[in-house]
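Hi there. Long-time user, first ticket. I'm pasting a complex I've been working with (about 660 residues overall). I'd like to know whether the download I got is complete or cut off, because the file seemed smaller than I expected. Thanks.
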Amino acid sequence: MSRQQSSAPTMKDVAREAGVALGTVSKVINGLPVGESYRLRVEEAVKALNYRVNNYARGLKGGQTFIIAVMIPNLLNPYFSRVAHCINLELAARGYKMLLCSTEFDPIQEQNYVISAEQQKVDGIICLSYNPELEVSEDVPLISIDRYFGAKIPCVASDNYGGGRLAAEKLVENGCKNLAFLRIGSVLTNEPNKRRDGFINGCEALGVPYSLKIVDDGTPYSEFEAFLREHFHGGKLDFDGIFCVTDSLAHQIIDSLRTMGLRVPEDVQVVGFDGIRSFGDLEYTCSTIVQPVEEIAAQCVEMVLEKDRSRLPALVCLPVSYACGGTTKG
Amino acid sequence: MSRQQSSAPTMKDVAREAGVALGTVSKVINGLPVGESYRLRVEEAVKALNYRVNNYARGLKGGQTFIIAVMIPNLLNPYFSRVAHCINLELAARGYKMLLCSTEFDPIQEQNYVISAEQQKVDGIICLSYNPELEVSEDVPLISIDRYFGAKIPCVASDNYGGGRLAAEKLVENGCKNLAFLRIGSVLTNEPNKRRDGFINGCEALGVPYSLKIVDDGTPYSEFEAFLREHFHGGKLDFDGIFCVTDSLAHQIIDSLRTMGLRVPEDVQVVGFDGIRSFGDLEYTCSTIVQPVEEIAAQCVEMVLEKDRSRLPALVCLPVSYACGGTTKG
DNA sequence: AAGAGCACATCAAACGTTTCATGAAAAAAT
DNA sequence: ATTTTTTCATGAAACGTTTGATGTGCTCTT
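Hi, the file is complete. Here it is re-exported in full:
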């Protein structure tokens, strides 16, 4: 009856059980040098009581919490869930835990989550947000993916510009004579925006004509179908190669094309962006520019844990690659 | 010079700035009744100093931490990431945060994560693990998905038995005369195991012959191809309807069938399980038994937050539904 | 064999909150 | 006007650790 059964055992309980002082228990728990006989007695007591360190007491002393907050827009999108997955692996390998939030692209939730993460005294934040309004504090190390907040917040992204250019090159290489670029969403006010610029640059360098169809976020998909129909005359499309800003859009476009009676890749070739694979790790769902998600994750984790923030670059740009997924001829 | 610039402001700082007592600040922060003039002064000071509550100090007093640990095997699998996604939404709506771990099906990681979550003093754990060895403590409320640990640990699952039966019924309804069930993995030592039993029950009730091919976890996929070839004579397969234990397996099987020159669904119809949709929310990737993931998540969250654990049922079984995804005739 | 030095266990303070007992001041009752 | 009640800010203790100062008992030196 000396203790409530319900409350978990504390270090004090362990100390009493082992007949040693509190500080001794602490040292044993933390692997600091301590007399062999003491160590044994403490370890026994720990087991006997099934003692677990209370991280809250630990964190209070101002030490590390070994938690990194990760913020992504949505877990249903395979690209984002893959990012989360890879970050989780990297963190776990280093003994860190991941406080994950999927914000549903909601600016309010995003802002709240940043505040919430600071309250939680996380050791750092990795943030994938396209919200241009997001305010981030500089008290907590923050690394951004795909979005450049300014020189003080390091940003990790894949080579979106190079990827856009690569898409153009690959389409031409496969025989396309007339290209189009399709994009939806304010999702692209940031680094991914460069996909368009790279694409244009590629087309111009190769001397290939191109069209652009870029619509705002929230625009219904039917706008793209309308665009396709506008360029559809006598059973033929004006272009024979389409670069879509994401695999997700590419997928929808391919459906539309097939519905219109066009064959992919025979009549029109399509390239997406992201490198999404079905069921996460099987074949590519379309020909695509593959983002190096593992490397992005590794880079973010390494950077967010870097103690000397002055050593961090403002922007890290990682190389993309091309993968044929059957919606191009090669 | 009175304080280090680097350390975050504390309640004491706010109290000093506002010229009130510590307890008063605490009350304001927590929305407890306090004199209007005091409230104003404190709120001003909070803003001036950009004060943030330290959750670690808060958690130390034994209160709630508003964090729920969620453990799933893998974030790349769309079913699991969808579970995580839905749980995240439910938790966020209730003001809770999610400490997410993807364990890669590794029993050691799973065990460590449970311990780690307890250390972190989370308010509860939602756990999706097929590891039969996993030991869970009863100090922290734990809800299991798809795996029955015993009467003391509530389990939430979809109606796997009913789903298996439904798969058989639908295949027969669409004209199949001869069925097969394919399963891989010890992944299915638990609730999902009932899919087989339900399927068998359905076949027997309908008087339809069936074959089973059930292999251990780790078995290479080629074993299934071999099985298909064994039952392939003169361009015809012994069965015209296949129920695969997951959509992921169904997908692979469909590929193999097509490679063998069989048309799906004309020659063979295939039904999977899970309800995976491409890109998370577009069309179904195959005909499938759809798990009610939103409901599973909602149920788990509601249960894990229930204060009176004695009121919790040992097993909650949620209804599944059938969706045609083009790999059956209807 | 005695003092210096060393190893190491103990103790107490501190971390930033919450909460409860205290007491002062204001309001109500007589 | 005085007592009683109510209201509400205050200050201190407590939560479970870590950590650096303190002190005890031992070993090594000469």
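A couple of notes from our side: The longest strand of chain B covers residues 67-72. Residues 90 and 301 of chain B are 7 Å apart (CA to CA).
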